[in-house]
Write a structure and sequence with these properties.
The protein is mainly α. The protein has one domain (about 5-255). Helices cover about 80% and strands about 0% of the residues. It has helices spanning about 5-10, 15-35, 40-50, 55-70, 80-105, 110-125, 140-155, 160-170, 175-195, 205-225, 230-255. It starts with a helix and ends with a helix.
Length: about 260
């Protein structure tokens, strides 16, 4: 890449090949998010971790998730279970520093393996539709929030943890979706504070996030256009299988390098 692309490479501190790869990966992850409604961060982390370590991907993913959420929001939060969303966000505020501290303390290769391992475990558990009845309690609410924050600090995949709580809660899909949207926005505010305090949300994290939000948004729009109601039941399992495969390949590759 030369000419007009050079300032972008300087801003993002990436080589031409790395920039092109991340643009393609975020476009693909956006498409997956657009037609499945989830897995944006997990998809990017599972693939882009060979280019950037988790601690550099996490701040970038904050911006990508925010951009995708703004595009995908429908209606409002009127149907949301606000106490549930507040409880999850409060728990996440405790878990975020714990997960991020671990990521910062570990060697880069170990943090990569940990992030990929978390993705494989969460995706496999969701694919198996694992239900934990004990989550549907007050302690389960806050515990899920802490676990979601921890998973976010490790691999920015807290939403996959929250999905377990949603499966355990006996509420309508409309209420659960609205609650998840509210939780993600509340979590975005608190996680930005944590990322800033830990010095992780630096200039490169911000610029990469803003730059790669463009292909992400394009992907989300394309994904929404590709969505077909009659095939909606297949999207989630296919995405989870893809996630498990990509993260597993990354794990194997990290052990062989």
């Amino acid at each position: 890449m030369t000419g007009a692309a050079t300032p972008l490479l300087e801003l993002t501190a990436l080589t031409g090949g790395e920039f092109a790869a991340l643009a393609g990966l975020t476009l693909l992850a956006g498409i997956v998010r657009g037609f499945s409604g989830f897995a944006l961060s997990a998809m990017v982390m599972a693939t882009a971790v060979v280019i950037l370590p988790p601690v550099e991907l996490i701040p970038m993913l904050w911006w990508l998730e925010m951009a995708a959420s703004l595009i995908m929001v429908r209606g409002g939060w009127a149907a949301a279970d606000r106490p549930m969303a507040y409880g999850l966000a409060l728990g996440a505020l405790v878990g975020w520093p714990l997960g991020l501290s671990l990521t910062l303390a570990l060697p880069v290769e170990t943090s990569k393996a940990l992030a990929l391992g978390v993705i494989v475990l969460l995706a496999a558990a969701q694919l198996a539709r694992l239900r934990i009845p004990g989550l549907a309690t007050k302690a389960g609410l806050y515990g899920t929030g802490v676990a979601a924050g921890f998973a976010s600090g490790v691999a920015h995949v807290g939403g996959m943890v929250v999905a377990f709580y949603i499966l355990a809660a006996d509420r309508s899909a409309r209420v659960m979706r609205a609650t998840l949207v509210l939780y993600l926005f509340l979590g975005a505010t608190t996680s930005m504070v944590v990322l800033t305090l830990f010095g992780v949300m630096d200039f490169s994290g911000i610029t990469r996030g803003l730059v790669f939000a463009v292909p992400t948004i394009l992907g989300v729009v394309l994904g929404q256009m590709l969505f077909t109601e009659r095939l909606s039941g297949y999207y989630r399992p296919l995405c989870l299988i893809l996630l498990i495969g990509l993260a597993s390949v990354g794990l194997v590759r990290s052990q062989l390098v």
